[in-house]
Amino acid sequence: MNKKITLAGMGLLLIWLLSQCTTSQIVYSNVSVPEEGGIRFEKLTDETRDNVSGISTRNEYGKFEWWVNPSIAVSPDGRRFAYLSYKNKQTNIMVASAERGGSGATQRTFRNWVTDLSWSPDGSQLYFSEQRNNTSSIYCINADAGSVLNQLTFGSTYDAAPSASPYDPDLVFFSRRDYGSYSIWSYNRKNNLFTNYSTGCTPEPLKDEPNTFLCTRFNDKGIGEIWKVNYQTGIETLILSRQEQSFTTPRISPDGKWIVCMGNSFDPKNKRVQNLDIFVVRTDGTQFTQLTFHPGNDGCPVWSPDGRSIYFLSQRGTAKGLFNVWRMNFNLQ
Questions:
Q1: DSSP string over 24-90
Q2: Is the whole model's pTM more than 0.70, yes or no?
Q3: What is the pLDDT averaged over residues 55-59?
């Protein structure tokens, strides 16, 4: 997975949309467009130095697809952010200063193909998954020293997108076993027990709602939807679903009022998928709002700890449409 991201291979989670992407000339060098008025954008990485891994491409059939695993993480204190970088034919985690505008990036893993990442609630660990051949396993590593690597899942499965629960020892993730559908699992870090909860992928535990997580599910047309699942009561709530648009990788705001996610923009006039953009919706499903409108791809959004900013990947601001980590302000009430 690199700046020209290759998403072929078994076990990769892709979104395949039946409409072809528009092929009009895109001016990537613009930082913003008129529809994004009032939003301040700050570029945190440098494409000539940081080699940030991308999240979207067109496959060999010309269909638009994207990588849904979380590729950015912000430390709980807001001082650092982590991202995936492709160098020397390997994808690894880099950690940079959020306070100094992305300067001083340090490599934290030395693996072959790290596919996602998240921070532990106390800021001491980085969780990630790495793909090897047809399988993927979950690991954790010291966020400060990058040493003492621990492997948490094993076997011939595809385990990915780990996210630590803030209120118990569980680490939630999604898994594909025996080439079946994707499902949400947890790993108890104290007793080493695994539990299967429901269908879905890219789980996000909710801080103020124990036993509850957000996740992505795909309907019978292959369209991504955002769901909330309480695995103790069995209550499942559809938060966001729209015809011809897929939404994935939900992340809850620190105050618990908003969900940010990425999804495809769709032009109803020509019935074509255009690109990836960033959207927010309240946790009750109201006030659905599109935040980005740049013709390049924007995706993989995560909140800053104070909820005032959103970090994301974008092709904007570079002549060749290479990906960088960006930060934008968020001020919806």
A1: S---TT-S--GGGTT--EEE-S-TTTS-B---EEE-TTSBEEEB-S--EEE-TTSSEEEEEEEETTE
A2: yes
A3: 67
Query: Is the distance from CB of 274 to CB of 267 less than 8 angstroms?
Result: yes
Helices (H), the chain: none
Query: Residue 104 has what pLDDT?
Result: 83
Placement of tokens 């992340």 in the chain: 251
Residue of 208, 248, 245, 254 whose CA lies nearest to 77: 254
Q: Residue 100 — very low, low, confident or very high, per pLDDT cuts 50/70/90? A: confident
The single residue listed with the structure tokens 């030395």 is 110
pLDDT band at 180 (very low <50, low <70, confident <90, very high): low
Name the residue type at position 332: L
**Contact (Cβ atoms closer than 8 angstroms) between residue 88 and residue 107:** no
The tokens 């740049």 sit on which residue? Answer: 294
Q: Which long-range contacts (CB under 8 A, 24 or more apart) does 4-9 make?
A: 4/54, 4/57, 5/53, 5/54, 5/55, 5/56, 5/57, 5/67, 6/57, 7/57, 7/59, 7/65, 7/67, 8/59, 9/131, 9/134
Please give the structure tokens belonging to residue 55. 């999240």
- Sole residue written with tokens 């006030």: 287
Distance CA 256, CA 174 (A): 22
Which residue's structure tokens are 């921070």? 119
Q: Cβ contacts of residue 222 below 8 Å, gap of 6+?
A: 15, 16, 17, 18, 246
Residue type, 17: L
Note the Cα 8 to chain centre separation in Å: 18
Q: What is the pLDDT of residues 197-253, one digit of tens each?
A: 999 999 999 988 888 999 999 999 889 999 999 998 999 999 999 988 999 999 999
Three-state DSSP at 155 gives: coil
- How crowded is residue 197: how many other Cβ atoms within 10 Å of its Cβ? 19
